[in-house]
Specification:
The chain is of the alpha+beta class. The chain has nine helices and nine strands. About 45% of the residues lie in helices and about 20% in strands. The strands form two sheets. A six-stranded antiparallel beta sheet has the order 6-5-4-9-8-7, with helices on both faces. It has a three-stranded antiparallel beta sheet with strand order 1-3-2.
Length: about 260
């Protein structure tokens, strides 16, 4: 099969499938229940088209109705389970992340790059909460403003990185947020040279994190490992001299365990 990525309009591109998945992805932590009109707005579809997809997903058991409101059903979890079950390294990494949390008292995660976002696929959460939203497996955050995102972007080819930077929309989440694409490219290049990335309160005030790439023993990029903490509790020196070496040790252990 040709590995070239299809684009809308290509003969083999199934637009209906893409639209159905777009409707599923419109639901998230901030929009767990929506009306038909709200789904249409979030997916940029007309009401008639959004209605057909919602009713089809309802017939398949992925969506349920409560009056005018639609919401996802637990059947959607089957899609995520299929991904997790096909990646045998997950249980191995989970243990290493839990060891970090037990030792440092901090949350640790593995994420992969998906478009302009990172998606959490393995996570060990500390007792304290770092962000207003609850981070869990499946959570998506903008790659440009996360340490895991910058580490993963550093693994892209020059042409892939150019394409990402051309498409990405930069926002000012905090006063520290990078909003210039040239500066973002420089940060990604620094992550490539150093082998790690640090992001300090660019996505959320008080949120500070460090990340390193995680490779299998065969050299396959599995994702990025990170440790996230509160800036008021852990200074930058501790992050780099204590947390970073601990994270690099975990990445080395993952590589040995996945040969």
């Amino acid at each position: 099969m040709d590995e070239q990525t299809l684009k809308p309009g290509d003969r083999d591109y199934v637009g209906a499938l893409a639209s159905g998945l777009e409707v599923l992805q419109a639901f998230d932590a901030e929009h767990p229940r929506m009306t038909l009109s709200e789904v249409a707005v979030r997916t940029d579809m007309d009401r008639a088209k959004a209605r057909r997809f919602l009713l089809t997903l309802h017939a398949l058991g992925f969506v349920k109705r409560n009056g005018r409101q639609f919401e996802l059903t637990p059947r959607v979890l089957q899609l995520g389970y299929a991904y997790q079950a096909s990646n045998q390294y997950r249980a191995v990494i989970q243990q290493y992340l839990e060891d970090i949390t037990a030792e440092l008292g901090e949350s640790s995660s593995l994420a992969v790059l998906d478009g302009q976002d990172v998606v959490y696929v393995v996570r060990s959460a500390a007792r304290h909460r770092l962000m207003a939203i609850t981070l869990s497996v499946g959570t998506r955050l903008p790659a440009a403003y996360t340490s895991m995102g910058r580490v993963l972007l550093a693994q892209l080819s020059p042409s892939e990185l150019d394409e990402f930077l051309e498409r990405v929309s930069l926002e000012r989440f905090t006063e520290s947020s990078v909003t210039d694409k040239g500066r973002l490219r420089a940060q990604i290049e620094l992550a490539r040279q150093q082998g790690y990335a640090v992001v300090d309160q660019e996505l959320d005030l008080g949120l500070r994190s460090v990340a390193v790439p995680a490779f299998s023993g065969g050299g396959e990029l599995l994702g990025a490992l990170n440790i996230s903490t509160n800036a008021a509790r852990v200074d930058m020196n501790t992050l780099k001299t204590v947390y970073l070496p601990r994270l690099q040790k975990a990445a080395e252990a993952v590589s040995r365990a996945t040969r």
